[in-house]
Every structure is written in C-alpha cells, then in structure tokens.
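PROTEIN DESIGN WORKSHEET
SECTION A - STRUCTURE
LENGTH: 283
TOKENS:
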C-alpha cells in the first residue's frame, strides 16, 4: 500500500498530502478547482520554506516530498491508487458522491478513507457501495504539526481495512486514538462544547481576548476556543456543531446565536479576515 490518492486540495487535503509524501508515499491529488491544486503545491512549498528557515527541515527534505506529490486532471488517474483519502466539504451527500465517482475508476481492493470531523462512518460506508473498505481518519489542522489522528471504524469495516489504514497512520508518526462512530467522535464532541459556551458568553458581554486567555492560562490550551474556531473556519464549525446537535439533540451542541450571526454575515474567521477576532489584510 504505497499509492495514496487525496481528493480535495484545501488546507486539510494539502496537509494530508504533505505528510503522506514526507513518509515516502506516492501521492496523487485531485480537486475540481485547478486554482486549488496550484495553491496546494505553493502552500506545501511555503510550509517547507518556513521549516527550513527554522532549521526543522532541509532543501533535500523539501525536494523529496515535492517529488512524491503529483496533481491529476481528473479522477480517472486514480485507477492505480491503493488508498483514497477524501478531504472535501463536510457534507455526507458530497462525500458519498465523491467516493462513488472515484469508485468507478479504482480497483475493488482500493480502500476509502474519510477525513470527516464527525459524520457517521457507517452511513457513509453503506452508501458508498463498499462498506467493508471504508473507514474514517480524522486529522487535525494544521496536519503537518498536529500529532493526533482519530481512527473510526464503521459497523462493517473489515479488520484488513482497519489495519492497512492504521499502518499508514503509524508511518506518518501520528498519535492514534480509536474513536467510536458517533457524532463528533471524541475530540470535537469535547471541543464544540468549549467553543459554543465561549460564544454564548460573548452574548453576555464577555471579551473574546480575555475568554481565550482564560482557556490558555487556566486550562493549558495552546490556543483559545474562539481563536481555534476562527482558524478552523466558522463555516466548518457551524456545520460540525449542527451535525452533532442533529445526532444527539443536546442543548450544549445547538448552534450559538453569535456563531450563526457571524456566519450569516460572511465572517468566517481567518480566511475572510474577520470572525470572533479581526485579522490584518494579507499583503
């Protein structure tokens, strides 16, 4: 299992492609947007340039990694892939549709992996048409930095599929946690509560900078919940929160009014320059 396909060349997909290539895997990427693929390669190069300046990587590391990454014009090029990892929009229908589309080209032995942050793996696997060959691997952002990966088996995921994906994840030198196939898995179930309650406290007049300072200094979080929400993207946060609330029906997971308001105004966090915080315009 040395040939990996990554579908979706946004921030998460590019990070997954980078760590797989760094580990020596032959990585083929695809995105419906040519611009996204161009930005993906440029982003990986920029990531390496930053690490090289800090003495954490060499030019040779950069060259070897980039040599292991190619970009495909269409999904037909995925015919020889052993594993396909999707990192597309967090919507069950979108993800299932993508797996069905690529499924027309790959072999019957090809393993499908979803980077969903909380959608039901069993439902996704059943609808994909190959329930024993699909499972979840929830990476965290930014992928080259964050060590944790949640592995999630569907109710029909085979032992062989799980072991193959676990082996790849170990090769990436990640910390592996087996998570249950429930809304939000483990991390997001805990994290969404913190983010949501911080958002609700803003409605009561709390200061966002002070709230995040409390989470960092008091709870030892490397980044406050509101800043992390901005980094992740408030569009991603609202989708994740809504999915968990739909699955559990618990008030703690209902979308906070402040989050909904920011989303409706198009303030999605760092990527738009404004979310819970305001960010300087990119040069």
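SECTION B - SEQUENCE
RESIDUE ASSIGNMENT:
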């Amino acid at each position: 299992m040395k040939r990996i396909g990554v579908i979706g060349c946004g921030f998460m997909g590019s990070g997954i492609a980078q760590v797989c290539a760094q580990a020596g895997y032959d990585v083929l990427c695809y995105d419906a947007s040519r611009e996204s693929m161009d930005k993906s390669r440029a982003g990986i190069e920029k990531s390496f340039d930053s690490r090289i300046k800090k003495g954490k990587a060499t030019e040779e590391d950069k060259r070897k990694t980039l040599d292991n990454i190619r970009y495909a014009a269409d999904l037909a090029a995925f015919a020889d892939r052993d594993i396909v990892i999707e990192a597309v929009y967090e919507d069950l229908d979108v993800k299932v549709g993508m797996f069905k589309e690529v499924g027309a080209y790959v072999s019957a032995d090809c393993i499908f992996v979803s980077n969903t942050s909380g959608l039901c793996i069993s439902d996704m696997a059943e609808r994909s048409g190959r329930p024993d060959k699909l499972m979840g691997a929830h990476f965290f952002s930014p992928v080259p930095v964050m060590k944790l990966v949640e592995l999630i088996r569907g109710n029909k995921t085979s032992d062989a599929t799980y072991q193959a994906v676990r082996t790849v994840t170990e090769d990436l030198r990640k910390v592996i946690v087996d998570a249950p196939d429930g809304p939000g898995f483990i991390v997001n179930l805990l994290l969404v509560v913190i983010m949501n309650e911080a958002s609700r406290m803003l409605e009561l007049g709390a200061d966002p900078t002070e709230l995040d300072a409390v989470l960092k200094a008091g709870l030892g979080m490397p980044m406050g919940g509101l800043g992390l929400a901005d980094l992740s993207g408030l569009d991603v946060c609202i989708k994740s929160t809504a999915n968990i609330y739909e699955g559990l029906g618990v008030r703690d997971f209902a979308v906070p009014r402040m989050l909904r308001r920011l989303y409706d105004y198009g303030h999605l966090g760092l990527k738009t320059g404004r979310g819970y915080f305001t960010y300087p315009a990119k040069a």
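SECTION C - NOTES
The first strand starts at residue 3 and ends at 7.
Residues 187-272 form a domain with the N-(1-d-carboxylethyl)-l-norvaline Dehydrogenase; domain 2 fold (CATH 1.10.1040.10).
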